[in-house]
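Lecture notes, unit on protein representations.

Consider one protein chain, 429 amino acids long.
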Amino acid sequence: MPHTYSYIINQLKGIPMYGYNKVGLNTFPNLMPFFAGLSRKGIRDTCLPSDNAHYDKCRFIFKDYSEKGFRTAYMMDRSGDGGLFDYHCYGLVHQPTDYYGETLFIPMESTRHNANKCVGSRSQVEVLLNYTHKYLRAMTRYNENFFAFSWGVTLSHDGFNDPQQADPLYFNILKDIQEEGILNNTIMLFMSDHGLRFGEFLRSFQGQLEDHLPALFFVVPNWFRDRYPIAVKNLESNQNRLVTTFDLHATLLDLTDLTQIESKLVHQRQKNLEDELARKNGISLFLSVPGERTCVDAKIPEEFCSCEIMEVVDNNMFQVVNAARLMVNHINSNLIGNDSRCELRTFKSIDKAARAPRLHIGNDSIVKYQVSFFTEPGDGLFSGLVRHFENNNTMQVIGEISRLNAYGAQSKCMTAAIMLPFCYCKNQP
C-alpha cells in the first residue's frame, strides 16, 4: 500500500513504531490486550468464566471512553461467526458501543460474493470505510468527543497481494479526513495486529518477521504536539522500542484524561515507572519505554519474540528431529484431550531449523531450537520452539505451536477454535 504509506509519513507526519511486536498467534489474543489490557488467559480469569459465557462482563476500552462522555463506535468488515467476539465463541449480548457496525455487516454476510470480499459492486472494505467516514463527519459536525475502532479484514487476511486493492481506498479516506479537518481533532492509530499467517511467504525469515512485527503508526495534530511536548517527544523516542498492544491500551487510557500527559505529570510518572507497571500490564507510549526492555518485560511469548538471533542448522541433526517429534507428540496429546474425531498426526519431514546461542544457567547448558516440520495426514506444516537441556538430554516445548499452511475444511468436525489448525477429521468431506 505505497500511496497510503507515503501519505501517512509525508503528509500526516505519522510516527511509525518499528518495534511493535505481536503477543499472540492471531487476532483475538493480539486485540484483547488492546481492548482490555489483558491476555487471553487474563480475559478467561476475570470475565469469561466458561466456554459458553459472553464477553459483556469484560471491561473493554469502550467503557472507559463512554464514562468520559465520548461517543463510541466499533466497525469491522467481517462479522457474525467470523467477527472478533464471535469466532467459535458466544460473543456479546448487549451492544458495546453507541454505533455498532455489526448491525450493518451481519445482514451483508449472506449477500457477499467474489471470494466473500464484495457486496454488490463494492468491496466490504469500501463499505466499511464509507461507514467510518460518515461517522467521523457526524461526530465532527456536532462537536462530539468520540472513540472509533474501524478494522478491515477481508482484503488482507488471506494474502498479501489483495491489499493493493485497498490502497486507493485508504489513501482517499485519509486525504479526505485530513482536508476536512477531522484529523485536527483526534489522534489516529493506523495499525494491524499480525502479518500473514499462512502460505509460502511465512516459511521465509522475512515472512516470520512481518508476521511478528505488524504495522503501527501514530498521527497526532500539530496543536497536540505543542500542548504536550514531552508526551509527544516520548512517543517519538519509542519508535525503535519494543512495544505491544498492552502498551496501546495504556496509551488509550491516557487519552481519556489528558491531564495524565501534562509535562509535569509525565515527568512524575516516568520516575515511578515500576508503580505504573504494577497497576497496568503495559506502559503508555506517552512515557519513555526503556531501551533495554526484553520480550519477557513486554509480556511477549518466546515463540513470537523478534529479538532472538538464530542460526540455520542442518535439518538432519538429531536434536532437530527429536524436537519435531516432541512437538508432534504435544499436538497429539492435545488432540486426544479434545476430540476423538481427529486423526493423530505422525512426523513426516523437517522443513527447516534454526538454533539460538547456547545459554549456561547454573550447571546446565540450554539450547533453543526453532523447527518447522511436515506431518501426516493432510501434509500439515507446523512450527514451534523447543528448549534442549543438554546435561540430562531432555526437551521442552515452548509456548504455542503454529500452523504455517492452510487447513481449509480438514478440521471441519472440530468445534474448539484453538484446535482447528491441528485437527485432521477422520471423516473428510
